[in-house]
Amino acid sequence: MEMQKRTPRGQRLVLVPTPYQGHINPMLQLGTFLHSKGFSITIVHTHFNSPSPSNHPEFTFIPIQDGLTVPLVSSGNIIAILLALNANCKASFEQCLTTQVMKQEPGKKITCIIYDEFMYFSEAAANYLNIPSIILRTTSAANFHARSTVVELHSKGHIPFPDSMSSEPVPQLHPLRFKDLPISPWDTLENFLKLVVKSHDVGRSSAIICNTIDCLDQSSLARIQKHCQVPIFCIGPLHKITTAASSSLLEEDTSCIEWLDKQSHKSVIYVSLGSIASIGEKELAEMAWGLANSKQPFLWVIRPGSITGSDWIELLPQEFREAIGERGFIVKWAPQREVLAHGAVGGFWTHCGWNSTLESISEGVPMICKPCFSDQKVHARYVSKVWRLGLELEDEFERGKIERAVRKLMVNSDGEEIRARAKDMKERIQVSMSKGGSNYKRKSELVEFIMALQA
Ligand code: UDX
Question: Using CA positions, which residue lies closest to atom 2 of ligand 1?
Fold first, then answer.
């Protein structure tokens, strides 16, 4: 007799994303994967930066009160916003869960709550209702390890560090220097540490899911695993484990794909600084002239409001616009995964947010790293010095340096090794994700693990 394979049909999972683009994307990608395995998915989200339900008709979306004030949101102080969310959302989430539990039909119980590590109020609410929980960490193991080291160094009195130490290597954290440590630029050090300590506390959660892959992050993962009491499932890159619909908060301008279709193979440098970072007028001008002088075609995402003092691209010099003609294409927001997978794209100038970094690596696109804050500095260092899949632009924005970096990455012979390594890493990731590979196995183990939580 043939064995009946157990499926999670009817089992329900509640997912709680942190309301920022770089966190919403991996959580909804994870939801799409788990839905494809037979789980039903409910997304509990804040009103602030709420995801669009119309992109995901297969999920149920439930908003909760987040209590954020207009001045706090407009301050852009992400640490203060996350601390406020944790203080404000616990009661509304508990209430939401209680209502859901009361309404649930037999056989359709909530099996588990999967929450972003920064939405740690979810763990307390899950405990209150006796529902198992799992943490999603959307960042790299390298950054997680560096963040833990910041807490440790602070407890020993080494943080904050004097300026004279900023270029010194951090003991045990090669190749990071003190200035690369992922310390937030917003709020006080105390509040940053409070958030980190709380988000690193596993509490009574049953497991951790990481959006990373062992062929990339192995050494940092091994260090984390040594101190972790619960299983860690590394199933990234999450955007690759399933074909998830877009979860962009801004409208994607797909006209750039038609423009890319007209460009030669691997000729275009794609430029984007993600969903949060911003730059000033001087940096904008240096970027613009560096790109123009490189003579490479470029696709540049300039988010509305990301240039200090202007709504969009009003501050771009007129001579620049005339100089580039058809060679440059500027959009407010791009379908980034599609862009990076396009054959015309041969390089990515990135701020090294973890999603952008993973999306680039998994398409074999080498990078110019220009980190702005926090984890981006760690990733820029790893991309350029450990994985050697790109170049880092250090210090001030300067057009000559930018021009040379673009040419090295895209065309010059001294960039050949970087381009070859990027191609090789793409293939290694593909092997890990295909049947029999380590990522493939971890995904199946995760599904089994979650199903067993209800037993
Ligand atoms: C934030 C932090 O800034 C980052 O350091 C951290 O690692 C994650 O959270 P963000 O700056 O937005 O994220 O960067 P990133 O992690 O790269 O996420 C941006 C996401 O938006 C990516 O998934 C990318 O594909 C998407 N994107 C970006 C678009 O879809 N279109 C764009 O035009 C630009």
Answer: 353
Q: Are residues 230 and 259 in the same domain?
A: no
As given in the structure block, the two tokens for residue 172 are 């045990």
| pLDDT averages per 10-residue partition of the chain, 455 residues | 63 97 98 96 98 96 98 97 98 96 85 98 96 98 97 95 95 95 94 98 97 95 93 97 93 98 98 97 97 98 96 94 95 98 98 98 98 97 98 96 98 96 98 95 97 79
ipTM, two decimals, is 0.99
- State the Cα–Cα distance between residues 165 and 106, nearest whole angstrom: 60
Tell how strand 345-350 and strand 367-369 pair up.
parallel
Domain identity same for 311 and 379: yes
Instruction: Note whether 411 and 296 are within 8 A (CB).
Output: yes
Q: What is the CATH number of the domain that holds 318?
A: 3.40.50.2000
Atom 4 of ligand 1: nearest residue by CA position: 353
Q: Provide the domain count of the chain.
A: 2
Range of the domain at 334: 254-411
Q: How far is the CA of 19 from the centre of ligand 1 (A)?
A: 12
